[in-house]
Amino acid sequence: MFSRTVSLLSKSIPKSTTPSSFIYKRPSSFIFTAGLNNNNNNVSNNLISLNQKPILSTFNTTSSNSNISIKDTLFLKDILMNNQRLYSSSSNNNSNENKNNNNEKEKQENDNNNKKTFETAEERIKREREEYNQKLHEKNKEIAMYVLAAIITVLGLSYAAVPLYRVFCRVTGFGGTVREQDEFEPMVKRNLDRKVYPIKVTFTASTANKIPWTFVPVQKSIEVLPGEPVLAFYRATNNTDKAIIGVATYNITPQKAGSFFTKIQCFCFDEQRINPHETIDMPVLFVVEPEILDDKNSRGITTITLSYTFFKSNDKGELEEI
Amino acid sequence: MNFAHNSAIKAPTPPDKGSFPLDHDKECMETVNQYVNCLKENNYQSRLCMEFTKQYLKCRMDNNLMAKEEMDNFGFEEVKKATIIEAPKHNPNEPIIAGLRKRNQ
Predict the structure, then answer these.
(1) Are A265 and B15 in contact (CB under 8 A)?
(2) Where is this region: Disordered (chain B) (predicted)?
(3) Interface contact B22-A282, CB threshold 8 A
(4) I need a labelling partner for B35 at 20 to 30 A (CA). Which of A9, A110, A148, A193 fits?
(5) Domain-by-domain residue ranges, chain B?
């Protein structure tokens, strides 16, 4: 192979000089001359792969000096530039070499192999730095993927937290969430073998400005003995032509008495449906605990007020006060 | 619910027997009117109208508007054991003397 290279060169070179005797001052010339002189020695140089370190020991320098003409220098300079270009792109374009002619292909292959085996320190540093940069780049990509996944996870959790919290509240009843109860606790009988004094319980029903129905208590007040189950009624009339669904809440005044007011059964916190032009009697069965007479905090309470407020619940499940 | 560690105020509890279903068909209307009339006559003292209360609750249970419960469980009979006294006079502006502990009567 090298003999052919030599023969190509020899066509344009004057016959007075032989290719094997060219010597250049430039460092790359060593590569060239070493390649040329390989036709006799060390054929293995041609077969050294790209990743191997340069084998400077196989360097061959010519023993004799000869005269070099200007034409030769220019021609050789072109060849050198060509080889350098080929070397820099050899690692990427090895496949592209197949498109060239056979002659050129072989020549380029030869030159490429020559270049690969004799890599200088600068080029090696460059190559290693590039590899390091590439590794860093890949590591960075990996970390970026992990961070992106973490962000998406946290975002997803924050969206999922809304229904999850609702389920949690419903199951545990945390913070006073209304729960459905299937079984009721057995009723407690209060011991009334003692002195008691009556307490007056007043009833109020509150309405807001937009009133599609009327909501009043049937009795204004009842005199109650602590421990006695008492029945009270509220009357609601639907004055519109549409059925209205409402939810009622209640309030106890004074606040201290709230803990002593036990409701056995009422019509609160549950959706109630009233048909158009219908009047409904809604009962409340309650007991005032006897402890209210003993407790220090509730001393002096003789009147308790129970006030109901009806809210209208529309189709969307929202509440509007009526 | 946090009531700022005020032991006088307890968290609200749901009704013992839940919510009354509505009496749309007015099946127990009669007993309601009887009870209300009794209250009017007796100066709205509920202990004198216990019979009508019982009748109303019975009507509800018969018409499937209320969970069945023994009448004794409500505690109507216990009321008869109680002795009714005058409400003690309580002065809301009673001064608090520091260091003097009041005992329960």
Answers:
(1) yes
(2) 1-22
(3) yes
(4) A193
(5) 29-81
